[in-house]
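--- STAGE predict ---
source: upstream dedup step, 1 unique chain passed
mode: sequence only
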Amino acid sequence: MSTILYWHRNDLRLHDNEALAYAASTGLKVLPVYLFDPVDYRRLDLGFPKIGMHRFRYLLDTLTDLQKSYEQRGGSILTKVSPPHLAVEQLISEYNVTQIVYQRELASEELAQESAVDEVCREHGVEVHKIWGRTLYHIDDLPFQQEKIPLTSKTFRVTLTKATQPRELIAIPDHISWAECEEKFALPEPAELGFLGADVNTSVQIRYEAGERAALARLDYYTFQTEQLTSYRWTRNRSLTMDYSSKLSPYLALGSLSPRMIYHEVKRYEAEIKRNISTWWLIFEVVWRDYFTFRHWRFGDKVFRLGGIKDRDREWNHDRQLYDRWCNNETGIPWVDAHMKELATTGFMSNRGRVNVSSFLARDYQVDWRWGAAWFEHHLLDYDVHSNWGNWNIQATEIYYTNPTHQSWKYDRKGEYVCYWFPELRSLPGMTCHLPWTYSDSELREHDIHNYRRPVEIYSKWSRAIGKLTRGDAK
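--- STAGE serialize ---
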C-alpha cells in the first residue's frame, strides 16, 4: 500500500490537528516525520546560532512527548537532519509516498522550504495537501483580503470577531494505519546541528515542561484546577513566579497546544466557573497572536527590515559593546538586567519584561532593533516568527518609549523580582535596589556588592522616576 507523508512543523500535537485527521482519513499508510533543517540552526553574523540551546532542548522534549503519544497508538515519528526537500525526496522512494500533508506557514524562510518540497513532489507525482492550523481564526474565515489586513489590532479584532467565530475542535482520529518504519525514533545530537561546545555547555534552567500532555495539563491547571484565570487581568504584568500568567505561549509556539483548545476551554470556564474581564483578556491575547500572524502575511519581509512595515527613516547604531552589555545583563539597570538574565537562564521572559528591554535597546541605546529580535529568536521557548518580529517592530518603530526606571517603580515596588535574580541587591535599603548607580563604589562594597557594572548613561528622562524610587513613593 502507498504512503502519505505527514511532515510535522509547528504542529507537534494530536488534538485539534487537521493535518493528522486528513492523513488518517485517506486510508493510506501514515508516516509522520519531523525534519531538522540545518539552515534554521545556522550561526548568525552576530556570533550565535539562530536557534539556541533553550529552544533546541525544548523541541527535543516536545518531540519525545509526541513520540510517546504515537507509540500509544501503535505509530512512531521519524526524525531526520536534512533540508526538507532532500529528506522528502528520499522518503518518497523509500516508502512509496503518493501524498504529503503539512501545515502551511506564512514567513519567507518557511515558504521557501514549502516551495522546495512542493517542487520535489511535482517531479515525483506526489499530491500535496496544505492545511491551515496555526491561528485561532482560520485563514479562510477572515473577513478581509490579504492586502486589506487592518494596521491596528483593535480594528483587526473588532472586525474579525463580529464577522466570524473560531471553528470547532477536530477530534483525534480513532484509527490510523501506520507505515512500517525500520528506523527507530531518535533525536539528533547538538553537534549535528552545528552547536559548538560552548553552546552546549550554556547554563540552562529547565522550568517549563514540554509537549502536548504538559500543555493540556497546564491549561487545566490554570483554569479549572486553580482558577488562576479569574485574576489574570490583574496579574499579567508581573514578572516573578509561574502563575502570574498562563505560560501557554511555549506550547502555542511549537503547536503542542491548539489556540482553539484554549478558546473553547476558556468558554467552558466562563460557563462553569466565572466570566469576567480576565477570561476576555486571555482570549484577547490569543486574538492578538492572530493579528501578528496575519499582519505579517500582509507585509511580508518588511517586518524584518530596519524601517519596519511603515518604512521609518531613522538612524540606528551598531555599537557591539552596547549590544553585548544588553545581551549579557550588564546594562547597570537592574530592572533590565534581571529580565535579560531570566531570558538567558530559562528561555522565557514576561510580557512586561519584553516591552522594557526592547524599548531600552532601541530607544535608549538606539541599537539596531533587529539585533534584539535575533537575540530573542535565539533564546525564547515561545518564539513565534510573527509575534517576535511584530512586537519588536512595534516597540522600536511605532509606539511610545517605555521608561525602565518608572516601570520598575510601578511593577516591582518591593524589589522582589530584581533581587531574585541579583540577590546581592537585597542589602540596599528601600527601593534603591533599582538604583545601585546612586551609590559610590565604597558604599556598594559596604553592602557587599562587588561586581556591579555602572550604566553608560543615566538619561534625564528618568529623573522623575528615579526620584520616586529614591523616596520610595507609594503613589
